[in-house]
Amino acid sequence: MAFDFEPSVMIESLPALMVGARMTVIITAGGLVFGFALGALTGLMKLSRNFFVRKIAGCYIETIRGTPMLVQAMFLYFGLPMAIGMRIHVMVAGISVIAVNSGAYIAEIVRGAVQSIHSGQMEAGRSIGLTRAQTMRYIIWPQAFKRMIPPLGNQFIISLKDTSLLMIIGVGELLRTGDEIVAVNFRAFEVYLTVGLIYLVMTMSIAKLLDILEKRMNLKTQR
Amino acid sequence: MIRIENLHKSFGDFEVLKGVDLHVRRGEVVVILGPSGSGKSTVLRCINRLENPTQGRIIIDGQDIMDPKTNINHIRSEATMVFQQFNLFPHMSVLENVSLGPVKVRGIKSAEADELGMELLTKVGLKEKARSYPDQLSGGQKQRVAIARALALKPKVILFDEPTSALDPELVGEVLDVMKQLAKEGMTMVVVTHEMGFAKEVADRVIFIDEGRIQEENEPRAFFANPANARLMDFLGKVISHN
C-alpha cells in the first residue's frame, strides 16, 4: 500500500489541536510561575547559613532530579489520592507536576546565578548598613536574575515539552489531543507532524521572548 | 571614637592578628602601613565586622560591636567602607549607588536622597556622571563614586581599604585629593594604603603592622624620619627605593 501524504488532514486537524495547544500553554505557564517561585525559594534555601534549611532544599532537589517526571506524575495523580483519600483535579495535578519538577532545576539555576555574583557586592551592601536580606533584594538578586535568563529559557523550553508526558494522566494537552485524532482518522504521519510543528512554534516563541527580555535588561543597565 | 583592645583573628590555624590595640580619636586620620599579608586589611574588616574577630574587644562610639545586642547594621552605617576593588553596584546608576544607603538604611525620602547624592557627587567632582553606570567610568571615577556612597550615610568614620591600589598610577591623585579634602573637613578616617606621600602629608598618626602586631606607631614626621623598629626600617627602605 503506497503512502499518500494528505496535507489537508493537517489543516482539518488544526482547530482541535489548537485546543490542546491552549491547554499545553496553560499548564506550562501555570507550572512555570509556581516552579519559578519554588525554585527561587529552594535555590536561596540552598545558600542559607542554616544547615537544616540547606538540607531540606537539597533533599527536594535530589529527589526530583533523580526520578523520572513520568513517575512523579503517576504518583501524584494515581498514587497520592489513595493515601489522602481525595481525588486531585487533573489540571491541578498537571500544573503541580510541572511546578515541582521545574522548581528543582530552577533552584540550581538560581543558586548558581546568585553564587556567581562577586562576594564584594555582598560586602559593599553590608558595608553601608544594608541587612543581608536587603542586600540580596536590591544588590545581588537583580544582577543574578540577569544571569539566570539564558538557563531559565532552556528550562522553560524543557518544561513545555515535558507537558506532553502528562497525556499519561489524561491531561488534554497537545499530544493527547493529537493522539485522539489519530485514533479516529489513522493519519499518524500528518497529525504527529502537525503536533511537532506546533511544539516547535511554541518553543521558538519562548526563546524569542527571553531573548527580547535579555536585550532589554542589558540596555537598561549598560547604557 | 574607635577603641580596639587585644584583637585576635585567625583563619583556620593561621593567626593573622595576634593582639592589636588601637585607639582612633574623633576627627583623626590614621594610616595603617604594612607588608602584604601583615593583617592590616583584616584589622579594618574587623572594625565593621566584615570579619568576625576571634578574640578581643572593639568599641565604636561607646558600642561594643561584639555584643549580640548591638545592631551591627547600624554600626556599619556609621563606619562605612571604601574597597580596593570599588565594589560599585553595576546595575544601578552612579546616583542610585550613592542614594541607596540613605533611602534603605536611613529611611530618607528618595527625592531628598537624590539631592544629597547630587551634592556628594558634586563634592567628588562627578556631578555630570550622575546618570552614568559604573561600567562607563574610569577606575579613579569609580573610587570617587564609592567615596560618595560611603559619605552618603553621614558616617562617623570611613574605613579605606587600599583605595588606590587597583588604580592606574595617573588616576591615584584624583582619589587622594578627595580623601585629603575629607581629612581637612574633619572626617575620621582609618586608611590602609601604600601611599607614603598621603601618609606623610595627611595622617595624624601612622601605624606599622607586621606579623599580626602593631610594630610602630607615631606621628608621621617622626615615623618616617626616625623609625625605631627594624622591620619598619626594612619596609620603608624597600618602599622608598621603589618610589
Describe this protein's structure.
The complex is a heterodimer of chains A (223) and B (243). Chain A has 223 residues and is mostly helical. Chain A has eight helices and no strands. In chain A, 35% of the residues are buried. Chain B has 243 residues and is an alpha/beta fold. Chain B is 39% helix and 25% strand. In chain B, β1 and β2 form a beta hairpin. In chain B, α3 (94-104) crosses α4 and α3 runs parallel beside α5. The longest helix of chain B has 16 residues, at 169-184. Chain B starts with a strand and ends with a helix. The interface between A and B is medium-sized, with 21 and 26 residues.
**Uncertain regions of chain B: pLDDT < 50 for 5+ in a row?**
none
Chains forming the largest contact: A-B, 21 and 26 residues
Average residue-wise pLDDT of chain B: 94
% residues in beta strands of chain A:
under 5%
Q: What's the total count of β strands of chain A?
A: 0
- Spell the H/E element sequence of chain A: HHHHHHHH
Query: Which range best describes the helical content of chain B: under 10%, 10-25%, 25-40%, 40-55%, 55-70% or over 70%?
Result: 25-40%
Q: Give me the secondary-structure category of chain B.
A: alpha/beta
Outline of chain B, from the CA principal axes? globular
Instruction: List low-pLDDT spans of chain A.
Output: none
Give the C-alpha Rg of chain B.
18 Å
Sheet-strand content of chain B, in percent, reads 15-25%
Counting helices, strands and paired strands, the structural category of chain A is mainly alpha
Shape of chain A: flat
Q: Compute the number of strand runs of chain B.
A: 10
Q: Give a quick account of the main beta sheet of chain A: strands, pairing sense, barrel closure.
A: none
Question: What is the assembly state of the chains in this entry?
Answer: heterodimer
Count of helices of chain B?
9
